[in-house]
Amino acid sequence: MIYLYALSDAPQEEISLDPGVVDQAVCERQYGPISAWISPLAGAISPTTENVWRHEAVVEALMAVCTVLPVRFGSLFADGEALGAILAAHEHDLYADLERVRGRIELSLRVLWEQAAPPPSNQLVDASLTGREYMQLRLQEERRMREHRRQAEALAARIHQPLAQLAVESRQQLLLTPRLLLTSAYLVEREQMATFEQQVESLRAAWPQLRLLCTGPWPAYSFVTMTTVSDC
Amino acid sequence: MSQAVHKEKEVTLLDLLDRILTKGVILCGDITISVADVDLIYLGLKVLLASVDTAERMRKADTGQSRAF
What we know:
The complex is a heterodimer of chains A (232) and B (69). Helices cover 36% and strands 27% of the residues of chain A. Chain A is an alpha+beta fold and 232 residues long. In chain A, strands 1, 2, 3, 4 and 5 form a 5-stranded antiparallel beta sheet that branches. A 4-stranded antiparallel beta sheet of chain A has the order 7-8-6-9, with helices on one face. Chain B has a domain at 3-50. Chain B has helices at residues 3-22, 35-50; strands spanning 30-31, 67-68. The interface between A and B is large, with 61 and 41 residues.
């Protein structure tokens, strides 16, 4: 079987890569204008920390020298012919994605806050409540939660917007957990990274009560378009 | 390694797992990680993210260029 790490432009020069998952050699196979970076593999692969980092190390090594589309961990194909048929069927979309991410990197932001959602009222489990009293309490709870959500959206926007202005594209999710105010990703021109970092520092200074956790540069995992099986 | 650097590496590992297991190109090959596996990993991630500043159990990440800043 063939394990696939990433797709890229055909490289201008030979690229030497360290071994990939399960210590297998990584090689390139060209399919028209697209290069696939692969390793032979006997079977399924476990998402151990080492395998995950090996996969990522291959993708990042490629990212340093060419435009790359990162492939989801664990993608296996029966053989080169099967992979080639799929790539040929999606060549146009894949090449469009390569153009979209060319010269760009992904930066990640997580914002933690201490303002937990208000706890539900203990009164709601009081068996002596009348139906009307119960519904009134439910309504109060709902209003408190909506106000909490509104505060979160307003605060997240004040962090996200200045960063999104530095990005070509961005993605954001609110309150994935009660403490995780904002989870976002930014597709940024590589030369804009220093400016982005400065903006993060400015935001940290302006919002000392928040924790801004940033990582990158990442391959553009969050900005590829072929991300569901139904696209195949 | 200072505690701050250790924590930064854990944040980086969390971001990596979040990306590599749930994002990136999907072609028609076999994704050998089952949805249940990813859900379990992701559930673990969410629990960890809820207390990311005290999480000490994740293994250190020592390869790759990506870093916390």
